[in-house]
Fold:
Amino acid sequence: MASPLISKYNIPGPRYTSYPTVPYWDNDTFSSKEWKLSVARSFSESNSTEGISLYIHLPFCESLCTFCGCNKRITKNHNVETPYLESVLGEWRLYLAMFPERPIIKEMHLGGGTPTFFSAENLARLLRGIFRHATVAASPSFSFEGHPNNTSREHLQTLFDFGFTRVSYGVQDYNTTVQLAIHRLQPFANVKRVTETAREIGYTSVGHDIIFGLPFQKKEHIVHTIEKTQELMPDRIAFYSYAHVPWIKGNGQRGFKDEDLPTASEKRDMYQTGKRMLEEAGYAEIGMDHFALKTDSLSKAVDNKSLHRNFMGYTESKTQFMLGLGVSAISDSWYSFAQNVKHVEEYQELVAQNIFPVYRGHILNEEDLVIRNHILNLMCKLETSWETPQKQFPELQEVLLHLQEMEADGLVEIGAGQLTVREKGRPYVRNVCMAFDLLLQRNKPETQLFSMTV
Ligand SMILES: C[S@@+](CC[C@H](N)C(=O)[O-])C[C@H]1O[C@@H](n2cnc3c(N)ncnc32)[C@H](O)[C@@H]1O
Ligand code: SF4
Structure:
């Protein structure tokens, strides 16, 4: 039987990598013209002081993992690499033409799909093309996602030579039954090899992604996976709750039945077990889903209160302007969001015609900006405050009324002008954010848009 708290709070909810969340973007008031204006404004406000962030989406994977919710294209044909990278550089040139000065890149992340699907040589060509017209900021933070089955020493060395010092590897679970169900056979030896090679080369942060709630997964599999993980002691661990979103077109979450998935209370038990084991091993929990060693830059960001969250997940510092290049990539100019088209061919065609491949977005209004700050505070610091009039909004009392039940359940503490998420409430931080999410409160979805919060 599920505990009363789980029964009450396990509801569909956003993961808040943005506010407003993507389904609540007002695409009608968004236009390419508005987007360009807000890019120009944000770039000029922040480039020379804090620099910009670049996210590059590299969508190809050789084999489909049936749990995966990312935007990817499955192919074994590596001839797709060059034309795709040409398009990414073409899109970069479209933005460069708008910038009044050379961009200064503070953060860069290569995500996917599988960046290591591309040869090291092609990744080097991409990065040379990016840096030809950009300057690297002082103490940059460059990272990429590597697949343990195909990341080579050459990949790691090449990217390190361009300034990459962080890599994260998809591990998910070491049990063979689970691996077969998710169509991802991946021996521990592969993860060990790529983890050790990254360290030999000089990477200062190696991360592993582990998921709880996968088909056929049991608590003992989590225990086993974390025991194996402790043999390698990655600097960071993303400990994700499996997001079951089979209604998203083309994401390929099939090959197992809903009944094969653990129940919400089994999932919560897996999380609690994993959390305890990781904390005993010296990891500190950070925001939602993340654990890091005290020496890792993410832990340091918590200590000096610079932790930020955007479409890349948690980041060490806030850059006002994050440009997303590549198919389906999302950009954030702080005053607006924009997303690129999701199909590789359409993306390439638009760029070939010198058209920004953006197909939807949102321009943030005053209210959005205030709420966005509260949600960021909650996701990054587990607290927020409204002592100054700029942080207040007309529905604040209503929001607090909503939160009284969570306070009675011991999940949050509401004080004079501030709210703190208690340790017991940490697994429910998405639910706390939902109380502040005015767009969601005003327009509750009739069909399921988000994964469950547990
Ligand atoms: C793009 S993949 C990482 C790089 C590479 N493609 C790989 O699989 O090793 C990003 C990570 O997102 C996580 N992820 C993907 N789909 C998910 C889902 N439905 N629920 C929770 N986490 C998911 C996985 O942990 C995965 O490692
Ligand atoms: S988990 Fe990684 S390798 Fe698997 S389909 Fe998703 S992006 Fe591709």
